[in-house]
Amino acid sequence: xxxxxxxxxxxxxxxxxxxYWELPDGTRAIEITDTPAVQCKECGMVYQEEDTIxxxxxxxxxxxxxxVAKSISYQKLMEFxxxxxxxxxxxxxx
Length: 94
Hints:
Blueprint: E1 12-22, E2 29-40, E3 46-47, H1 50-62, E4 71-73, H2 74-79
Parallel strand pairs: 2-4
Antiparallel strand pairs: 1-2, 2-3
InterPro entries: CHP03829_YokU, Znf_MqsA-type
Organism: Thalassorhabdus alkalitolerans
Pfam families: YokU (PF14122)
């Protein structure tokens, strides 16, 4: 059972969706398909959990985004080789 973060209903469930994300350098946005999401039957909200958001933002910061196409699946994006091992700018990990 998943509790909806918006309406607190117990009718939320995991799904996958397409999201549009601005690259860290602000040069463009990309389409990321099959992104993990939570969908609520009660309020209709579809959103990414905080962990997924952090994973996306870290990955986009740590890879060569010039090599990323306009549209990419979440899985393929997460498989891109990283330039650094981790995001050294995240203070909550220190």
